[in-house]
Amino acid sequence: MSSSFFLRNGRSVFSIISGGRRVTILLSGVNFTSRHIIDLSYSTHFMDFKGSSIPSSMKKLVVTKLSQNFRDAVALQTVPVPTPGDEELLVRNRFVGINASDINYTAGRYDPMLKPPFDTGFEGIGEVVGLGLSASARCTIGDTVAYFSDGAFAEYTLIPVNKSVPVPAVKPEFLTLLVSGATAYIAIKRLGDLAAGQTVLVTAAAGGTGQFAVQLAKHAGCHVVGTCSSSEKAGFLKTIGCNRPVIYTSEDLGATLRKEYPRGMDMVYESVGGATFDLAVNCLANKGRLIVIGFISGYQMATGIPAIRAGTLPVKLLQKSASIRGFFLPHFLEDYKAAIRSLTHLLSEGKLVCEVDCGDMAPEGRFMGLESVFRAVDYMYAGKNIGKVVVEVNSPSLDSKL
Ligand SMILES: NC(=O)c1ccc[n+]([C@@H]2O[C@H](COP(=O)([O-])OP(=O)(O)OC[C@H]3O[C@@H](n4cnc5c(N)ncnc54)[C@H](OP(=O)(O)O)[C@@H]3O)[C@@H](O)[C@H]2O)c1
């Protein structure tokens, strides 16, 4: 026998499966037929049908073949809406975030043991529409939550309740904090060793995580140089406090740094890799720290790794007592909640800009619907985005807190 509670049109219904037959007990006067989705679970859980707004099936993106080419790797499928387990939430995704590493994940570079088919997408924000009994101790139907957890590229996603971050509203600004903001915050705090008056270089500065590195370094009292590929991006960087945007497509980055910053950079937040990494190593000041955040210039290659001048690294580091430090967000989860708290606080005080790019200026317009994730990945890899690339998966629900 299994049982479930759910709310429908504001009425409570208690449904029991017994001996293969459903008995629906009406708690407030009108009879409703319960839905099949409930029957699939052996655990007790709560579902919000909001007048049957949870469909029986949904769209999601599934990696069907390992490839760094997102379009080759991923298929749009129609599947049943899943039922939450005891400690899970069923979230109706309103917005999901695009990350440079989405193509590393589809190429199987994160977990070589993971074989297709598997779900994809790292982060989402939306409304809780179903939850397991244990999860109900911490959340309820209608709560707005954000999360950093696998499987976000779907209309509905199951997440462990302990990975949910309560948010006051389903706004894409909160989504920017989950991976991009948290990465910059924790990497700079743990590995940056920043002090006021120091000079910092941020590469891919106008992007999802770069924008936070720029602002957090400014908050630490540093002078910030940021690289970007267009004058629009340079304009944006100025608005968030970047002292010296360098448009590397029209300016020689190495020559500019040598001329304007002969003492070098005390810290580099480096996301591009390859030739940009080499240049960043060359511009380190004595005791400078270079944080390896990523190497996007290689992600579309078969190896995923752009070439660098590795042979000369030891001598360059020794000559400057400089260091290179790697950072990978999942290794710093003990710092995650505090980082989100601090970032949310800065945002609420108006001290943090969370720039969101939903593709309004993209050739085919705003990224709406799950199918536009493909376009959004292409857009990022064309270097077009200013701020965090975000896809609007579902329209607002009728009583959402938007
Ligand atoms: N270590 C971690 O835990 C962690 C977490 C999050 C992100 N990251 C890393 O942070 C970096 C940025 O990721 P994101 O998701 O925030 O992306 P993003 O910065 O929003 O977008 C990527 C940007 O990279 C720049 N870029 C430079 N060279 C490029 C190239 N060859 N191909 C494509 N883009 C290039 C482009 O800006 P311009 O055109 O202005 O140069 C582009 O807009 C990536 O390396 C990513 O792996 C690491």
UniProtKB/TrEMBL annotation:
UniProt GO molecular function: 15-oxoprostaglandin 13-reductase [NAD(P)+] activity
CDD domains in alphabetical order: Mgc45594_like (cd08250)
Keywords: Oxidoreductase
Pfam families hit by this protein: ADH_N, ADH_zinc_N
EC nos: 1.3.1.48
Coiled-coil boundaries: none
Enoyl reductase (ER) domain residues: 69-391
Superkingdom: Eukaryota
Protein family membership: Belongs to the zinc-containing alcohol dehydrogenase family. Quinone oxidoreductase subfamily.
PANTHER family: PROSTAGLANDIN REDUCTASE 3 (PTHR43677:SF3), SHORT-CHAIN DEHYDROGENASE/REDUCTASE (PTHR43677)
Protein known as: 15-oxoprostaglandin 13-reductase
Source organism of this protein record: Umbra pygmaea
